[in-house]
Design a protein that fits this description.
By secondary structure, the protein is of the alpha/beta class. The protein contains six helices and six strands, in the order βαβββαββαααα. It has one domain: Pyruvate-ferredoxin oxidoreductase, PFOR, domain III (Pyruvate-ferredoxin Oxidoreductase, domain 3), CATH 3.40.920.10. Helix 1 packs across helix 5, helix 3 packs across helix 4 and helix 4 crosses helix 6.
């Protein structure tokens, strides 16, 4: 794996930091070197929030994201602060409902109804896990089995089955998407 930089961006309360923890753990299970960082506005819900994962096969020269290969945009508030970091050809997964103006231009954009899919599964709070599965399935960041093990270790037991179902839904959506 070459150096890979991933950002989960949106608003506070969407589980973006949890997504990065899950991805970080999954990459570690696969023997990759990874670093994780995060930032958020001082509001508990609704303010800008992001969490980044930088990963590779060898030691990392710098642990913070500087050129994003992947972006999961869960809310419009996360787009502007992330746009300038996107590499040419970066893979962007954007929630259709909450990100009406996703990054465009030199990116591979997938607009998908993450929030609506989560509601259909029974809980809006798993939109992040659907997005994580979809992004990893599209981009080959890490395997579904590693993500499932990481979810088992990082999420509360009472949400485990729902989170695993959401991960499965994300991977299942890969074949159904058309690039925007």
């Amino acid at each position: 794996m070459e150096l890979t930089e991933v950002r989960f961006a949106g608003s506070g309360g969407q589980g973006l930091i949890l997504c990065a923890r899950i991805l970080f753990r999954a990459l570690s299970l696969e023997g990759k070197t990874a670093a994780r960082s995060q930032g958020y506005e001082p509001t508990s819900r609704g303010g800008f929030c992001f969490s980044d994962v930088v990963a590779g096969d060898d030691e990392l020269d710098y642990p913070l994201a500087t050129a994003l290969d992947f972006l999961l945009a869960m809310d419009q508030v996360g787009v502007a602060p992330s746009r300038s970091l996107l590499k040419k050809g970066a893979l962007v997964v954007a929630d259709q409902r909450l990100t009406p103006q996703p990054p465009t231009g030199n990116v591979e954009l997938y607009r998908t109804p993450l929030t609506d899919q989560a509601i259909a599964l029974g809980n809006i709070r798993v939109a992040n896990i659907i997005g994580l599965g979809l992004m990893c399935g599209l981009g080959g960041i890490c395997g579904k089995e590693s993500l499932a093990k990481a979810i088992e270790g990082e999420t509360p037991r009472n949400f485990l089955d729902l989170n695993l179902e959401a991960l499965e839904a994300g991977f299942a959506a890969v074949g159904e998407l058309e690039a925007a």
